[in-house]
């Protein structure tokens, strides 16, 4: 019934988190920090803990060198938080648009992105 359907949706949400980044789970980053020691910088910690972030890091570094612009989409706001942190820590210029971005600011950001 409805209860089992809700349970399945919760499981799917948790699996989506697993597939995107382990730091979407509250305790994961703290636990990683304890196990990894203090050697890793924060950007490296964000990258090495997720296969998707390893690939994104490789792509963005290569595309930045050649002057490309990149759009990254995610349905999960918390994934956008992680990507924004990563971009800031790596020194990549970026703009973030999500559901809370006002229409006028969104329009200005798109104009800026598309400008020469």
UniProtKB/TrEMBL annotation:
GO process annotations (BP) = nucleosome organization
- Domain Helicase C-terminal, which positions? 52-114
GO CC entries? chromatin; nucleus
Q: What are the recorded GO MF terms, alphabetically?
A: ATP hydrolysis activity; ATP-dependent chromatin remodeler activity; chromatin binding; DNA binding; histone binding
State the SUPFAM superfamilies in the record. Answer: P-loop containing nucleoside triphosphate hydrolases
Q: Give the start-end ranges of region Disordered.
A: 97-116
The record's Pfam families line, in alphabetical order, gives:
Helicase_C
Q: Where is the signal peptide?
A: none
- According to the lineage, what is the superkingdom? Eukaryota
Does the entry feature the keyword Glycosyltransferase, yes or no?
A: no
InterPro entries per UniProt: Helicase_C-like (IPR001650), P-loop_NTPase (IPR027417), SNF2/RAD54-like_C (IPR049730)
The UniProt keyword set, sorted, is: Hydrolase, Nucleus
Which PANTHER family would you find in this protein's record?
Answer: CHROMODOMAIN-HELICASE-DNA-BINDING PROTEIN 1, CHROMODOMAIN-HELICASE-DNA-BINDING PROTEIN 3-RELATED-RELATED
Protein name (Swiss-Prot/TrEMBL): Helicase C-terminal domain-containing protein
UniProt organism field? Chlorella variabilis (Green alga)
The opening ranks of the lineage are: Eukaryota, Viridiplantae, Chlorophyta, core chlorophytes, Trebouxiophyceae
């Amino acid at each position: 019934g409805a209860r089992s359907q809700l349970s399945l949706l919760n499981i799917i949400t948790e699996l989506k988190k697993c597939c995107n980044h382990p730091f979407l789970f509250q305790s994961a980053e703290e636990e990683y920090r304890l196990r990894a020691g203090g050697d890793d910088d924060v950007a490296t910690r964000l990258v090495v803990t997720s296969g998707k972030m390893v690939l994104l890091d490789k792509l963005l570094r290569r595309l930045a060198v050649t002057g490309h612009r990149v759009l990254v989409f995610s349905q999960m706001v918390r994934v956008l938080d992680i990507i924004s942190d990563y971009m800031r820590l790596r020194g990549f210029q970026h703009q973030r648009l999500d559901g809370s971005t006002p229409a006028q600011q969104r329009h200005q950001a798109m104009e800026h992105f598309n400008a020469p």
